[in-house]
Amino acid sequence: MAKMNLAGRVVAITGGARGIGAATAAAFAEAGATVAIGDVDVSLAERTASRLGCWWAGLDVTHRAGFADFLDSAIGALGRLDVLVNNAGIMPVTALVDESAESVQRQLAINVAGVVYGTQLAIERMAPGGAGSVVNVASAAGRIGFGGVATYTATKFAVAGFTEAAALEYRSSGIRFTTVFPGMVNTELAAGLSDHAMMRSCSADVVAAGIVDAVRRGRRAVYVPRRLGVISTVYGLLPSPARTSLMSLLGADHQMLQADDSTRAAYERRVQHRR
Prior knowledge:
The protein is of the alpha/beta class. It contains 9 helices and 7 strands; from the N terminus they run E-H-E-H-E-H-E-H-E-H-E-H-E-H-H-H. The chain has helices at residues 19-30, 42-52, 64-78, 101-126, 150-169, 204-217, 227-237, 240-249, 261-273; strands spanning 10-14, 34-39, 55-58, 83-86, 132-137, 175-182, 221-224.
């Protein structure tokens, strides 16, 4: 498959005001693309867009009609849509039995429904031209379960399975589909968390570089860092009792729950209470 030349391409990124989203916006802009960022935090989106020279608009990915308006406004301003990066997501850390119904529903709405909506809307706009790229950001937790983030893990498994199914259904459309599996990333989402033996942290810039490279090459899956792909494959080959025993031995059943609450407090308040 020929590499995509990113010069002059229009790339829309959800959750683009901070973290992986902002780093990805910068990486695409550096590669010559025109970037549109959307984020529910409109003031930060405006500041990030001003810093990067991007087009921006407020975006709540849980509202399908608003998502459609965001993409159509971007197309109206920039002329086209070549790439959509569904990056917006949240990760509350909590013991499963203590997690509120609101927390569960918000993760499903943002992490799963938002990705489904974005993918549907991108296909509608890209399919007539027979080309485009949809990138759905999952997580290493979309292949391997971790205690303390059970609902988050479920949402990322959902993203991985959904993207596989979409790629199969639209295999003849000319649209490329990519799932991104980052490990621990040094962003606000991981505030107060320590590295795990299986997932050493990396910078958002490293993930962004992996996303840009995946779009250029039309890769179906990208693991950041790459060794997570090997770990994920080996993990998947083990029988369930062996996986449980291994993860428990490595502390994956409880390490997330040992997060530094004071460091993490601001993030937890933001993702639990923003409408």
